[in-house]
Amino acid sequence: MTTTFHVSGAGDDADDGSAERPVRTVSAAAARAHAGDTILVGAGTYRERIDPPRGGTEDSPITYTAVPSDHVVLTGSDRFENWSRVDDGLWRLVIPNRYFGDFNPYAEVVHGDWFVGNDRRHRRGNIFLDGAWLPEVPSLDALETGIGLGWSSTVDGLQDRPIVEVAGIEGHAAYAPAVYDLEGVTTITARLPAGTDPNIDDVEVSVRATVFTPTAEHIDHITVRGFEIRNAATNWVAPTVGQEGMVTAYWSRGWVIEDNEICYSRCAGIALAKNRDEFDGERGTTDGYYLTIQDALERDGWSRETIGSHVIRNNKIHHCGQVGIVGSLGCAFSVIEGNEIHDCNAQGIWTGWEMAGIKLHGAIDVVIRGNHLYRCGEPAAIWLDWMAQGTRLVDNLMHDNVRDVFTEVNHGPIQLVNNIMLSRRGLLTNSRGMLVAHNLILGRLEVWDDERETPYLRPHSTLPVSMRRVCSVGDAHWVNNILGDAVDLSEYDKSVPDQPCTFSGNVTTASEESRGLVTELAVDLERVGDVWRLAFLSHPDCGASADRVRRESLGVAVVPQQVYIDPDATSTAWDHDYMGVARGDRVAPGPFHSPLIGAVAVWPRRVAV
Predict the structure, then answer these.
(1) What distance in Å separates the CA atoms of residue 226 and residue 539, rounded to the nearest whole number?
(2) What is the dihedral of CA 26, 32, 38, 41, to 10 degrees?
(3) Cβ neighbours of residue 44 under 8 Å, at least 6 residues apart?
(4) pLDDT higher than 70, residue 519
(5) Is pLDDT above 90 for 150?
(6) CA distance 440 to 396
């Protein structure tokens, strides 16, 4: 027998959670729920950190869902009504340090392996005006002079560590928690627009480190649906530590995160997370990451049966300071589809090695399909780093990013199929074992040779065949793409001789390109309301003139000896075009089964359940 627990802002946590006697907090319902139960949350704003104590089963998940048509906000921020006015536009808030419990985001700084703070400290807290974050100003003096909007903070008795500019690079010691006066106060000073009163207007202060994250491992088969989730003081999510986003499938299996709006996380939106251990913050090196993999296999049971297989579907993910969706190891065998991801790592306040719209380590048999990514910062909207094996990037729309895709030191196979890639920089790769087919790619191609050593695995498994294998570039197949003049396929001339590349059926605008049909091309992407429409202003006159991609002609990715087909061997990514139309034996280059006439709506693309 299953139970529905009702949550209402007018409820009482001492009640039983029935429709007639709802509880007041999601956490109170979570404490009662077991496999197969549903937690139904009514309209309102819930200011709490939800730590689900147990999960469900594959057939009977525990479902956390908003009442259909209700607007339900789960937030890491609080409102305060004791701001004092300093002068015109300048306000001050004093919060007792005891208010924060065991985590004060204005004492803690953003830190971690491979994080570069650009010679300044970045507090994990944030201030929000009308739902959007305000910039943290490095000094109180800058605020008091009245130069721009923003905020700064001080904490009584705070003892800051010296800044380590490239934290995690060779010899970085573990970060020590902040030390400060628990009986003192935290003072936040903010410069707001003229006429704004933070005691009345929509001004919020982040106070919680996350919103929906289990403390325990293996809290499996959780569904999170229909919420607006925002404003958490998350930390940098390196692949060598226990990763924590605003929503975290923490070292678990079988989560479904769908139909949510996830926004304004200090660092990460969703984490498909590696587990925590005693080595967090001590392994920010290549050799350290090898040890992370070994520990996951030997101590924590990293396998298809225990970890991964999550579904991240139809979410709006935006304004995450570091990354929209992140995962190291814990992302394996997952599906990321139908999401709109934008304005991630777009502030330009820090740099590092773990930033993107989607950033994954160990993306084994992961499908990234039908997503829309734009305005994502350096280095790419999608970054696949280490052990992308059996990974498929299919039917994604990408534009206005610093770069669309980065595949770093993988042995493949990786499929990049039916994508629309319109940014000025399209693909950076120092990987091998790649099929690039039926894409429209306008931005620059960069191919880097690399002699770093990275693992490859048994097909469709987490078990390494070799923990270290030099990853020289080669073994790439470019088939039936439409390429802008910045895509120079001669970049592959640096490939190693024993892993040759092949090129066929490509159409290019590059006047000196010898590996495809030269043509004219002009493309326009226009937004009308919520609909994005793509039009070819001039189009390759090639029709259905190319041979279909055939699995037998591709062979296998050379290093892992794995074929370029779905794990169940029943289908291939190139069977259908971007719009889902089946392809025949003769096909048109590019993501559509036939040349476009006029404009076509390419987003939204809601994925049916």
Answers:
(1) 40
(2) -20
(3) 8, 9, 72, 73
(4) no
(5) yes
(6) 11
CA distance 573 to 480: 13
412: its two tokens: 């493949």
CA-nearest of 129, 155, 158 to 140 is 155
One-letter-per-residue 3-state SS of 492-545: HHHCCCCCCCEEECCEECCCCCCCCEECCCEEEEEEECCEEEEEEEECCCCCCC
Output the 3-class SS for 232-263: CCCCCCCCCCCCCCCEEEECCECCEEECCEEE
Neighbour count for residue 139 (Cβ, 10 Å): 10
Four-CA torsion 417, 313, 235, 342, nearest 10 degrees: 60
Distance CA 443, CA 523 (A): 12
Integer angstrom CA distances of residue 85 from 152, 187, 206, 571, 577: 15, 13, 20, 64, 59
Which tops the pLDDT comparison, 16 or 450? Answer: 16
Let me know the angle formed at the C-alpha of 104 by 101 and 110, rounded to the nearest 5 degrees: 145
DSSP 278-339: TTTTS--SHHHHHHHHHHHHHTS--STTTSB--EEES-EEEEESSEEEEEESTTTT-EEES-
Q: Yes or no: say if 408 and 363 are a contact pair by the CB < 8 Å rule.
A: no
DSSP state of 596: -
Q: Which of 420, 415, 471, 463 is nearest to 442 (CA)?
A: 420
Is 0.90 surpassed by the pTM of this model?
yes
| pLDDT of 170 strictly over 70 | no
Please report which confidence band the pLDDT of residue 167 belongs to, taking 50, 70 and 90 as the band edges: very low
Please classify residue 454 by burial: count the beta carbons closer than 10 Å to its beta carbon, then call 0-12 exposed, 13-18 middle and 19+ buried: buried
Residue 588 pLDDT level (bands cut at 50, 70, 90) = confident
Alpha carbon separation from 490 to 6, 407, 487, 515, 577 (Å, rounded): 61, 18, 9, 8, 27
DSSP line for 383-419: EEES---SEEEES-EEESSS-SEEEES--S-EEEES-
Q: Which tens digits make up the pLDDT trace of 300-318? A: 789 999 999 999 999 999 9
Q: What mean pLDDT is reported for the chain?
A: 91
Q: Which residues contact 13 (CB under 8 A, 6 or more apart)?
A: 23, 24, 25, 28
Beta bridge partners of 445: 427
- In DSSP terms, 393 is beta-bridged to 368, 416
Q: What is the DSSP letter of 112?
A: -
As a whole number of Å, the end-to-end CA separation of the chain is 25
3-state secondary structure of 193: coil
Task: Please name each of the domains of the chain with its CATH number.
Answer: 79-206 (2.60.40.1180), 362-609 (2.160.20.10)
181: Cβ–Cβ under 8 A, 6 or more apart, which residues?
97, 155, 156, 157, 158
Distances (CA, A) of 481 to 515, 571, 574, 590: 11, 20, 12, 5
**Would you give the DSSP letter of residue 573?**
G
Instruction: Name the phi and psi angles at 552, rounded to 5.
Output: -70, -25
- The answer on pLDDT for 584 being more than 90 is no
Going by C-alpha positions, the residue among 445, 400, 446, 439 that lies closest to residue 420 is 439
Residue 125, CA distances (Å) to 51, 154, 232, 334 in order = 20, 12, 8, 31
The predicted pLDDT at position 538 comes to: 66
